[in-house]
Design brief:
By secondary structure, the protein is mainly β. It has no helices and 30 strands. About 0% of the residues lie in helices and about 45% in strands. Strands 21, 22, 23, 24, 25, 26, 27, 28, 29 and 30 form a 10-stranded antiparallel sheet that branches. The protein has a 5-stranded antiparallel sheet with strand order 14-13-16-17-19, with no helix packed on it. Strand 5 and strand 6 form a beta hairpin.
Length: about 475
């Protein structure tokens, strides 16, 4: 590049902190237009003339500032009753300025100027600093040593190592399991290796009435006229209702009164009923029925229906009874339906029984899981007239719960597998807790644990032919929760 005289040539770039000075000259001095700029390293000084004018009139005195100590949380709470008088002008409150995360980034004064507040910032917020990433760790030390902290790492990545005494807590209570109301270790004594299991037994445990409720507030917005009232609360379950709690009373005034009550939930409560009366021991009005056990407060605004609390406690909760159970009882057990449990059939029918098999009573609730195979032939009125199948029902040969199904083929071979839905109940499905196809523990009616096998197709009446040769069904006893 060719450089000639008068060209501007870039030499270097600096970021300079400049200080500006004015040299005071008399007001009558001739106009001067000059300035000097001196730079040394990254510091610069700019000097120019500054004309000194005549002194102006005195201004009004500033009002005095008076710090107020009222504990307000935000400027929105400041009083709006101040006046434009010497007594109030100059009152101010100090507040922290917070960012979106609640961190203090500055402070402001809110000053009363007579007709409104004015915010005065105390400085300006600086740029956000780095956020350190702290790595904590803990070492346990003997209980008789003092705790301490060792800080290491770097400012952006500090390490905090805490040395904390391992102080053991008090030993908790160890109640006897046999004293629990839902455990029975007496009827069947436990043996080594037994587990607690549910075999279908239940017990009903009474629910206590709530303790004496508390009157939280009295207010307006209701229809209670002036007078003295008594309130009581009962607890409800699916089985009934408790007697009333001890009463709480209060005297209200006016004609639009209300009263808010709260109480403590007794174990097992599924809901509550609030009663009101105008004399002690005479609760004659059902104010409200609460349907959730977790709701333990209600505001009585008046009204209600004539009713009294029950004279006896009928509320209870049904609990399962846990008993010693051998591990072997919790493992699925196999049974097989042999060939001689089937019977031959030849004839016209819509559902032809060909065999049944009774499973012995089990000490736990269970459901059968069925697989097997048979041979069946015939013709019936359906889209596939030559494919004769079968159904397996539990509990009744005609109306029992379908638990397995076999669909025929042109070879006359029917493979049976678990199947619970039907054309009329396509949503039927088994779950571990929905109670479908459950045989109760120690069932006393043999039919409850009997499975029935019928020749069957989804068509109409057919001509069926069955021979039990080589027929076989496998039944797996699966322990389940009987559900609701």
């Amino acid at each position: 590049m060719t450089v000639t005289v008068g060209d501007s040539v870039f030499l270097e770039q600096y970021l300079i902190n400049t200080r500006v000075y004015g040299v005071v000259v008399p007001a009558g001095s001739p106009p001067e237009f000059w300035a000097t700029y001196e730079i040394q390293s990254d510091q610069g000084t700019l000097t120019m003339a500054a004309v000194l004018g005549p002194q102006g009139p005195a201004g009004a005195d500033a009002f005095a500032m008076h710090l107020q100590t009222d504990p307000y949380d935000s400027p929105d709470e400041l009083p709006n009753t101040l006046t434009n008088t010497v007594a109030d002008i100059g009152k101010y409150w100090a507040f922290d300025d917070l960012d979106a995360s609640g961190n203090v980034i500055g402070s402001s004064l809110w000053v009363w100027y007579g007709t409104s507040y004015r915010r005065l910032m105390l400085g300006s917020p600086g740029p956000p600093g780095p956020v350190p990433i702290i790595t904590p760790s803990v070492s346990l030390i003997p209980p008789d040593q003092n705790s301490s902290v060792t800080v290491g790492g770097t400012p952006p990545y500090p390490d905090w190592h805490l040395f904390l005494p391992a102080v053991p807590g008090p030993t908790g209570p160890a109640p006897a399991m046999g004293l629990c109301p839902d455990v029975d270790l007496t009827t069947t004594a436990p043996s080594a290796g037994d587990l607690l299991g549910y075999t279908g037994r239940t017990s009903t445990i009474n629910v206590d009435p709530p303790a004496k409720p508390t009157l939280v507030t009295q207010g307006t917005g209701g229809t209670l006229p002036a007078g003295t009232y008594w309130w009581g609360v009962t607890a409800t379950t699916s089985l009934g209702e408790t007697i009333s709690s001890p009463e709480v009373s209060s005297t209200v005034t006016g004609t639009t009164s209300s009263a808010t009550l709260t109480w403590t939930r007794p174990p097992g409560a599924a809901g509550y009923k609030i009663y009101r009366g105008t004399a002690s021991g005479v609760l004659s009005t059902l104010v409200h029925t609460v349907t959730g056990g977790a709701t333990v407060t209600y505001t009585d605004t008046g009204g209600g229906a004539a009713a009294t609390p029950p004279g006896s406690n009928t509320a209870g909760v049904v609990y399962p009874i846990w008993v010693p159970v051998s591990v072997a009882q919790l493992v699925p057990g196999p049974y097989s339906m042999p060939e001689n449990a089937f019977t031959s059939f030849s004839g016209v029918s819509s559902s032809a029984p060909i065999g049944s098999f009774a499973i012995p009573p089990q000490p736990f609730p269970w459901t059968p899981v069925v697989w097997g195979h048979i041979g069946a032939f015939g013709i019936e009125l359906s889209a596939d007239p030559m494919m004769i199948g079968c159904e397996v029902l539990l509990g009744d040969a005609a109306s029992g719960q379908q638990i397995a199904r076999g669909f025929g083929n042109s070879l006359g071979e029917v493979n049976i597998m678990p199947h619970y839905s039907t054309p009329t109940t396509p949503s039927g499905a088994l779950t571990p807790t929905n109670g479908m196809a459950v045989v109760p523990a120690n069932h006393s009616s043999p039919a409850q644990g009997t499975i029935y096998v019928n020749l069957y197709n989804d068509g109409q009446v057919g001509l069926y032919q069955f021979n039990p040769t080589d027929a076989q069904i496998m039944v797996l006893i699966m322990p389940v929760n009987p559900g609701g």
